[in-house]
């Protein structure tokens, strides 16, 4: 994984990663069954990256414009504490969370894919969009992931943060430990 020194320096400071859901944790498609049930697919490696990042003492939150029980269930599975759904104007919620956690803006990373994420993306320490993010967003973020939303973008950013903070190796050591 090759990243610029500038991105590594920004990632080294991160204490909170905030994510949009649709287009970041999912592939941006909304699927409805005949009975009106909504379905979303989440990438398991994205989820595992989130778990490892939290074990590395970096907090995670989501701020999403839509509200879905599926998202609640997935975030509960991943033990994400800061979950804000049904928030079309994300900036006030973001600023409140930053204040509650007593963080500076350069200690926050955000992954967003659409123009409604820009008010946050232009203010924070490390701004990221997936490969299939909106062109307006791509032109204004620090890093465009080579991975699409719902297809590994979140995992990559989690790894970038952990590698920059020297916590990735402890996870690798655990998984590569000798057989007992």
TrEMBL record:
UniProt EC number: 3.1.3.45
Single GO MF annotation: 3-deoxy-manno-octulosonate-8-phosphatase activity
Keywords attached to this entry: Hydrolase, Lipopolysaccharide biosynthesis, Magnesium, Metal-binding
Keyword Glycoprotein: no
Cofactor(s) listed: Mg(2+)
InterPro entries named in the record: CMP-NeuNAc_synthase (IPR050793), HAD-like_sf (IPR036412), HAD_sf (IPR023214), KdsC_fam (IPR010023)
Pfam families reported in the protein's UniProt record: Hydrolase_3 (PF08282)
Catalytic activity: 3-deoxy-alpha-D-manno-2-octulosonate-8-phosphate + H2O = 3-deoxy-alpha-D-manno-oct-2-ulosonate + phosphate
One record GO biological process: lipopolysaccharide biosynthetic process
Family: Belongs to the KdsC family.
PANTHER family: HAD SUPERFAMILY MEMBERS CMAS AND KDSC, N-ACYLNEURAMINATE CYTIDYLYLTRANSFERASE-RELATED
Subunit and interaction comment: Homotetramer.
Name of the protein in question: 3-deoxy-D-manno-octulosonate 8-phosphate phosphatase KdsC
Gene source species: hydrothermal vent metagenome
């Amino acid at each position: 994984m090759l990243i610029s020194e500038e991105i590594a320096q920004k990632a080294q400071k991160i204490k909170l990663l905030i994510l949009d859901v649709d287009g970041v944790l999912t592939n941006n498609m909304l699927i409805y069954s005949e009975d009106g049930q909504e379905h979303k697919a989440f990438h398991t490696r994205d989820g595992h990256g989130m778990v490892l990042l939290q074990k590395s003492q970096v907090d995670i939150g989501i701020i999403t414009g839509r509200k879905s029980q599926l998202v609640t269930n997935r975030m509960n599975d991943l033990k994400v504490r800061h979950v804000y759904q049904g928030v079309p104007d994300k900036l006030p919620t973001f600023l409140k969370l930053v204040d509650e956690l007593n963080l500076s803006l350069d200690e926050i990373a955000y992954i967003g894919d659409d123009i409604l994420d820009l008010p946050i993306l232009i203010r924070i320490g490390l701004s990221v969009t997936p490969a299939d993010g909106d062109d307006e967003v791509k032109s204004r973020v620090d890093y465009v992931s080579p991975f699409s939303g719902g297809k590994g973008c979140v995992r990559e950013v989690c790894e970038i943060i952990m590698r920059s903070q020297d916590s990735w190796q402890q996870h690798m050591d655990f998984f590569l430990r000798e057989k007992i």
